[in-house]
Amino acid sequence: MAQVRNKQVILSNYVTGFPKESDFNVVESTISLELPEGSNNVLIKNLYLSCDPYMRGAMTKPEGSERKGSPTYVPASPIAGYGVAKVIESGHSNYKKGDLVWGFTTWEEYSLVPAAQLVTKIENSDVPLSYYTGILGMPGMTAYAGFFELSSPKEGETVFVSAASGAVGQLVGQFAKLTGCYVVGSAGTKEKVDLLKNKFGYDEAFNYKEEPDLDAALKRYFPQGIDIYFENVGGKTLDAVLSNLKVHARIPVCGMISQYNLTEQEGVKNLSKLIYNRVRLQGFIVTDYYHLYPKYLEFLLPKIKEGKVVYVEDIAEGIENGPAALVGIFSGRNVGKQVVAVAHE
Amino acid sequence: MAQVRNKQVILSNYVTGFPKESDFNVVESTISLELPEGSNNVLIKNLYLSCDPYMRGAMTKPEGSERKGSPTYVPASPIAGYGVAKVIESGHSNYKKGDLVWGFTTWEEYSLVPAAQLVTKIENSDVPLSYYTGILGMPGMTAYAGFFELSSPKEGETVFVSAASGAVGQLVGQFAKLTGCYVVGSAGTKEKVDLLKNKFGYDEAFNYKEEPDLDAALKRYFPQGIDIYFENVGGKTLDAVLSNLKVHARIPVCGMISQYNLTEQEGVKNLSKLIYNRVRLQGFIVTDYYHLYPKYLEFLLPKIKEGKVVYVEDIAEGIENGPAALVGIFSGRNVGKQVVAVAHE
């Protein structure tokens, strides 16, 4: 069988603290582009790989039963994540050669994956294919499920979003505006704050790095308090939010990126504020909501085509640049959804 | 108009840290036992006063809009809380002379209260009247709403209750057993731990003061994790629970008594555990559930009469002993529901 080159991104060591480029290696392996006899797996060519905050958890050495439900990388093996791919050969009836798909794949040029790892075929190709790592993929469904399913937003409510220009945040803000909410976002650079106000339609936005007193900043933007806080960062931001909630506020907990690289987590002190305000703080995992994907496409595709919802991506070209792109999201280097383009078709 | 003596419990100063007996004074005032002309209020003789953890919040000097929804005491004025009383005269059609009632009253022998402060007339007097400060009053409804309405318990689930022998906790444990759950409680003395196991039917119980490692204690009692944590204490206990939850766990947040007397709240570090386990942490206030009170009585009264649900009270005799009784609940001096008997009929 003919073997072809298969570049891979390998975890060199378990990571502690902030991940560095040197925690990864790009190596050359080989792969056969024929399906093994009798296999019901799918052989795919990876086109776009998604850099997502949850991947930080997979880089940490697992301890006991601690990391239920989340993937774990193995040193000296390639890392994994969401991606867009083209089917080269398929042993499974759901997929055929030439199909475009998105789902869970490996960081390499070609992968042999179980069909169950693929979320779905891509039926609409009149939008950028890379969108299926973001607005039309896992982060998009995360924003949709977290905002509409967990928060039950109503017109006129007040919404705060942290990491607001990120893969998920930029959509939450736009969904909030479509619902008739007042929405404020926080981000870590002036460029991102400008995007929030001028591109995504946030009513207000601020650079949290320039706010010595987050509580005061929230009181400025939400004098009457917050109805919905879409939680992406945790730590000090959550603590400040807890002192600025309205009665019956909802906090869908999507992620806590500010905590992922700390060896000792920050303590959150204002949890007793949940009581009198009858607040619901709820963690969620997007995979529980994938049955809503067709409904999501029906809601969103027309809005993308009419320009009513926009999406900003930060695309790194070439799998060689994958480690830098992945590491960059933990220091906020990316502007918008971070993608790695392995190939364009 | 004839005036009678009316002993009152007065707040001497706003409280910081743990409340002390000297933060209160018992003084003699006078009151007329006739309703003012044209009043639609209700004149009541207070029989039993309830000592509840939420009262600590009312002793703190209010800051801005911080204490929405909770009462605030005023120095040099009598404090207030739940109680059982007998109607002396009524200007309101819902109540008449001789009725027994429970509701929100003032810490004094006689009170003139708006009818809206009273929750309801007492129709069943074949149980101890003091029960209407506890099992048949606000704490009982708190246990019922927090456990059944917010936690949606199922047979076979695992339940952990902190402050488990308290006014609310002793009922949550018994409700969990009636539902077919496995239930473990924590308390602060050997006497209370014995009560949990031998009187309230908890499957297991431990003294948290004798557990240097709460995480290890929970792993011992819940090797498969916790489905429902009934949160009464906050702080370190909550942090340990967060590392021992099952997927889709529910945490109704009833109170955080371990934090009420601290000038600096303890930080809770394990909140990111909410995410992968899809945990719902939800604050609630019992007054939102008072419409369920008739349903609660229907559920509970037969069980009390058949001895299937029991209740332990700690009754201090005389309003003069009110301050000591109230202060005592914050150091765990009481065993079971703390009540102050002002008069018995």
TrEMBL record, chains A, B:
Q: Name one GO molecular function term.
A: 2-alkenal reductase [NAD(P)H] activity
**Is Disulfide bond set as a keyword in this record?**
no
SUPFAM superfamilies attached to this UniProt entry: GroES-like (SSF50129), NAD(P)-binding Rossmann-fold domains (SSF51735)
Annotated keywords = Oxidoreductase
Keyword Oxidoreductase assigned to the entry: answer is: yes
Q: Name one Pfam family in it.
A: ADH_N_2
Identify the Gene3D superfamilies for this entry: Medium-chain alcohol dehydrogenases, catalytic domain, NAD(P)-binding Rossmann-like Domain
Q: Which InterPro entries match?
A: ADH-like_C, ADH_N_2, ER, GroES-like_sf, MDR_fam, NAD(P)-bd_dom_sf
Enoyl reductase (ER) domain: from which residue to which, for each copy?
Answer: 17-340
How is this protein named in the record?
Enoyl reductase (ER) domain-containing protein
Q: What is the lineage of its organism?
A: Eukaryota, Viridiplantae, Streptophyta, Embryophyta, Tracheophyta
